[in-house]
Design a protein that fits this description.
With 230 residues, the protein is mainly alpha-helical. The chain has helices at 30-48, 57-81, 85-106, 115-134, 139-161, 164-194, 208-211, 217-220. The longest helix is centred in the last third of the chain and has 31 residues, at 164-194. The N and C termini lie far apart (48 Å).
């Protein structure tokens, strides 16, 4: 039995002019995840540097649990939807790391340290190396992930060692991470809002423009959710 061939004739669609469907640009989720990261890192840094009393640790932990963790989970989910494994994996790991930190802090006496939490945070830092090293093509995002590695690692050592010196180091790393996260969020947000990278993001080796199709799809091809990277 012969299989039907492609339609032909005056009423048949021209395959060269058939519109491409299924391209779904989305708003980049990176600023949402980075700003959640900034709030969490800043808040715990204030505890570690003793800018606020240890009696406030439960309040900070609860705020991070209900504010930062959901934002980063949303960012991770939309990162997978946009086919960006670096963004999705990175923000997903950050959500898990902050959730573990917040729950442990909520269930521990104020001002105490936990060797168990320290081991977990060192594991989170090691896991974050994967998206950090894979994401060097966007220096702004790489900076956030690299400082997140340092942030969780120093906090993990501080929890294991139990002394003030490492807590102070972790606090200052946390402040640097908060500032970097705000900058990265602003840079990606401005790029998404204006279509131009007014603040340096540090995209390296991007070939989105050369790979774009002709015609009306030129602009869509550069949108988050369509291009290869957020």
């Amino acid at each position: 039995m012969a299989m039907p061939g492609p339609a032909s004739g005056p009423g048949a669609p021209d395959p060269l002019r058939t519109p491409v469907v299924g391209l779904r640009p989305i708003a980049t989720p990176l600023p949402l995840g980075f700003l959640g990261q900034a709030v969490a890192s800043w808040s715990f840094a204030c505890l570690q540097l003793r800018w606020i009393g240890s009696s406030q640790s439960h309040t900070v932990a609860l705020a991070v649990l209900v504010f930062t963790v959901p934002l980063q989970l949303v960012s991770a989910a939309w990162g997978f939807w946009a086919r960006d494994p670096v963004a999705a994996t990175g923000t997903g790991l950050l959500a898990g790391g902050w959730a573990a930190t917040a729950v442990s802090t909520l269930t521990s006496p104020p001002g105490s340290t936990s060797a168990g939490l320290g081991v977990v945070l060192l594991g989170v830092a090691a896991a974050l190396l994967v998206p950090a090293l894979a994401g060097v093509s966007r220096l702004a995002a790489f900076g956030v992930l690299a400082l997140s590695v340092a942030r969780f690692a120093t906090t993990g050592v501080a929890e294991l060692e139990g002394g003030r010196a490492w807590l102070t180091v972790a606090g200052w790393v946390g402040l640097a991470l908060a500032v970097t996260s705000v900058y990265a969020a602003l840079a990606f947000e401005v790029e998404a809002a204006t279509g131009r990278a007014w603040l340096p993001i540090g995209r390296l080796g991007t070939k989105a423009a050369s790979a774009a199709p002709p015609g009306d799809l030129q602009e869509v091809w550069r949108e988050p959710g369509v291009r290869r990277q957020l």
